[in-house]
Specification:
alpha+beta; three-stranded mixed β-sheet; 2 helices; 5 strands; rod-shaped
């Protein structure tokens, strides 16, 4: 744990991308408090990742001030990972290589023989 000198102002650490427990440790080391409005049980949260924070990293704030972190994206912020994949119209035509080949028929017709 990093101990900062006892100055009246501290710089906000970058917390986005950290797990909850790592964010708490980083905040404590810098001398700031954390609040998480979307996690009432924040003190027990361990493996959720911080997706945004306020104030932004690098801003100087008074020692002991509160930094707010969120673990879920807000409305319209692009949460949801890869998103929903839905088929687009027109659908791709079926067949692939099958379209390029003739339909199977008499296996001997190709070699010039007739079926017995």
């Amino acid at each position: 744990m990093r101990i900062t000198p006892k100055t009246p102002e501290v710089r906000v650490p970058k917390l986005v991308g950290l797990m909850a427990m790592d964010a708490r440790v980083a905040a404590e080391a810098r001398g700031v408090l954390l609040a998480a409005p979307d996690r009432p049980d924040f003190h027990r949260t361990v493996v959720d990742y911080v997706v945004r924070q306020y104030p932004l990293p690098g801003v100087e704030i008074p020692r002991g001030a509160v930094v707010t972190v969120w673990f879920d994206f807000g409305e319209g912020e692009g949460g949801g990972g890869a998103g929903v994949r839905e088929p687009r119209i027109p659908n791709p035509s079926g067949g692939g290589l099958q379209r390029e080949l003739d339909e199977p028929g008499d296996p001997y017709a190709v070699a010039g023989f007739s079926a017995p």
